[in-house]
Design brief:
binds calcium ion; 2 domains; Arc Repressor Mutant, subunit A; 5-stranded parallel β-sheet; 11 strands; 8 helices; 220 residues; 42% helix; 4-stranded antiparallel β-sheet; Rossmann fold; 20% strand
């Protein structure tokens, strides 16, 4: 799940970024409206947290242009104004939800969970395959009924492979979907997480679930 946080107040941006990263989201940041639109054109986001008061292009206008450009992910407006008119304007231009500042981080996290569940009810189902049970709402992982404890990144890797079962997924595609823009494509990041994931998955189980296909990627 990839999130863009758009907010010009640096302490707020980095607090949200830290919190969401800890929960296993891939997080990018933008500090003004123009940067937000640029990033949304280049990357595909599941959720955009969008401050209303932004330099260069304000949040309402960003929201309007995102929807015009057929952005189909979720938008949560962050607003210091609690006026009913601003809320209605935000929702009218295509926001899915809004939060009035100051808000507790846990509330933002809950809204993101709720919104992605609502929209992604069909997009992110519990997956059952090859003895695995993967619940993206709780990150709960079971193999043959036995619980396996995965980190959020390991879970995201496994879930992505399970969703693409039978297809060799290139490392770059995993980086694009599961990591954020700071991930260096030339490092061993994917490999290291993949090794840990495999070790946990195969402990006490005979069969390897994830295969490496040389030059092509990973396949479940
Ligand atoms: Ca602001």
């Amino acid at each position: 799940m990839r999130v863009l946080v758009v907010e010009d107040e640096e302490p707020i941006t980095s607090a949200i970024e830290r919190g969401l990263t800890k929960l296993g989201y891939a997080v990018d940041t933008a500090f003004d409206g123009a940067e937000a639109l640029e990033k949304a054109t280049v990357n595909s986001y599941d959720v955009i947290c969008l401050d209303l008061n932004l330099p260069r292009i304000d949040g309402i206008e960003v929201c309007r242009r995102l929807r015009e450009d057929r952005y189909t992910g979720s938008i949560i407006m962050l607003t210091a104004r609690s006026g009913i008119r601003d809320r209605i304007e935000g929702l009218d231009t295509g926001a899915d939800d809004y939060l009035v500042k100051p808000f507790a981080f846990s509330e933002l996290a809950a809204r993101i969970r709720a919104i992605t569940r609502r929209e992604g009810g069909l997009r992110e189902p519990v997956l059952n395959t090859r003895g695995l049970e993967l619940d993206p709402n709780t990150n709960r992982t079971r193999r043959d009924g036995r619980e396996i404890h995965l980190t959020p990144k390991e879970f995201a890797l496994l879930y992505y492979l399970a969703r693409n079962e039978g297809r060799a997924v290139p490392q770059e595609e995993l980086l694009e979907h599961i990591w954020d823009e700071h991930a260096n494509p030339f490092t061993q990041t994917v490999k290291v997480h993949m090794n840990n994931l495999r070790r946990k998955l195969n402990e006490d189980f005979g069969e390897q679930l994830i295969e490496t296909i040389r030059g092509k990627g990973y396949v479940l």
